[in-house]
Design brief:
This protein is of the alpha/beta class. Among the domains are: 158 residues, Rossmann fold (3-Layer(aba) Sandwich); 70 residues, no CATH class. It contains 14 helices and 17 strands. The strands form four sheets. A six-stranded mixed β-sheet has the order 1-14-13-17-15-16. Strands 2-8-7-4 form a four-stranded antiparallel β-sheet, with no helix packed on it. A hairpin with a 5-residue loop joins strand 7 and strand 8. The longest helix has 20 residues. The chain is globular, with a radius of gyration of 21 Å. The model has no long low-confidence stretch (mean pLDDT 95).
């Protein structure tokens, strides 16, 4: 029997329209905007000025805090300006604009396709390389990866868990990466194991990707300590706590982190980026992005340089369909609606989804019928209907006592609600407000 997590979860239609589409290298733009805040934590501080000439891989902005990440140039050209632009959050934030001129890379970056499996670096040196390369979690959270590799005093990791689940409907970027860069993902996993000083790693993959499971199983025969774990298809299995429960049967307590149960979780895209950083001296300057939708002419997976305009990728897929009702960054369950496509691709963009008008339309909200479906599908064991009520009435203390901060914002409650209530919208408001109250209390 296939493994999965036990509490909650839903089964939305998969709609993996681009699963059979090989990764395409996106064309370089004429002008790029590289955001300074592409990660959780403090934005990076620019180390270049207007008029500077830069090469691909050159440092553009230095991490400015413990939770921060370096930003490198994905392009060669001239710095045109440093000013605010709209990013995927919909807010105006600082970015470095580059007039793209040719494709001149730093000589220290190995651009060959030769697989380098051997590594003589120490754990500390690997972590340092990951930090220098500006690698963040590529599953969507964008948490600086070097921090996960720096286990806090008093804690100990004994297992590395690689997330190849990609449970969000429509998205296929991780799937294609595992098929086309499987060797590099496995070597990246080995490097992460060495950085954490663990001898065992598991790569969890849902069973709707049998080709990826078979491919990586064949590859791991040549590597010690790495095991491929096929998983039952269930959303949101890609959540860290759900994946840990499914693969290892360990429960991460409320308010705790995976390291508290001896586990560190990284995405397959992150493992690949670690391989490139450590073995090829290549910073995180590009990622795989799925562009898809039922009305999209050619759903595709692109290897995209950070800072490339999203509109360029959609045009490469045939343009915006006439019946488009909403554009989403990410998947349909946890993604964020975009005001327009005039935004740059950043490290956290895993997909661009174009909904048609019928899919995008929200049904009319009805009164709660007390069916309890939102409770039964919540993977965190919360009571979403109650959290929405507390948020509506601005009962923030009650929200905190009812563990609103444990919500992973998976959207399962909203997906299953027969009364079409915007449960997640209100819970997000609650999390934002309660989080601010908690931070103020600690000052």
């Amino acid at each position: 029997m296939l493994k999965t997590f036990k509490r909650g979860g839903v089964h939305p239609a998969e709609n993996k329209l681009s699963a059979s589409s090989p990764i395409i290298t996106a064309e370089l733009p004429k002008v790029a905007a590289v955001p300074l805040g592409q990660h959780i934590g403090a934005p990076a501080s620019p180390v270049v000025n207007k008029g500077d000439v830069v090469k691909v891989g050159q440092l553009l902005a230095q991490s400015s805090g413990f939770v921060s990440a370096n930003i490198h140039s994905p392009f060669s050209g001239t710095i045109a300006k440093i000013e605010d632009t709209i990013d995927i959050t919909g807010f105006s934030r600082p970015a470095i604009f580059i007039n793209v001129e040719g494709d001149d890379w730093l000589e220290t970056i190995d651009r060959t396709d030769i697989l380098l499996a051997e590594c003589n670096l120490s754990a500390t040196e690997i972590t340092s390389k990951v930090k220098e390369a500006g690698i963040v979690g590529l599953g969507g959270a964008t948490f600086p990866s070097h921090i996960k590799l720096s286990v806090p005093p008093g804690k100990m990791a004994n297992v590395l868990l690689i997330n190849g689940v990609e449970c969000e409907p429509y998205l296929t970027s991780d799937h294609r990466l595992m098929l086309e860069k499987g060797d590099e993902v496995i070597v990246g996993t080995q490097l992460l194991m060495k950085a954490l000083s663990v001898s065992k790693a598991f790569i969890g993959i849902e069973n709707n990707k049998p080709d990826a499971i078979q491919h990586l199983k064949a590859l791991t025969k040549n590597y010690i300590g790495i095991e491929i774990v096929p998983l039952k298809v269930k959303y949101p299995q890609g959540g860290e706590k759900q994946l840990i429960k499914a693969v290892l049967n360990r429960e991460v307590p409320s308010g705790a982190l995976p390291i508290d149960v001896g586990v560190v979780v990284h995405n397959v895209g992150t493992a690949f980026a670690v391989y490139e950083a450590v073995q090829k001296n290549k910073p995180l300057i590009e990622r795989i992005v799925t562009v898809t939708g039922k009305s999209v002419k050619t759903p595709s997976n692109f290897k995209v340089r950070i800072g490339t305009p999203a509109t360029q990728l959609v045009e490469a897929c045939g343009g915006v369909p006439e019946d488009t009702g909403k554009i989403v960054s990410g998947g349909p369950m946890m993604g964020k609606a975009l005001k327009s496509l005039d935004i740059p691709v950043s490290k956290g963009v895993s997909g661009i989804l174009l909904f048609n008008g019928k899919e995008a339309k929200r049904p009319i909200m009805e009164p709660c019928i007390r069916c309890g479906k939102c409770i039964s599908v919540c993977p965190m064991g919360l009571e979403p209907y109650l959290l929405m009520t507390f948020s509506e009435k601005q009962m923030w203390e009650s929200s905190e006592m009812s563990h609103t901060m444990d919500c992973m914002e998976c959207g399962s409650c909203m997906y299953t609600c027969p009364a079409n209530r915007p449960l997640l919208d209100y819970i997000r408001l609650s999390k934002s407000t309660v989080g601010q109250i908690i931070r103020t209390r600690k000052q």
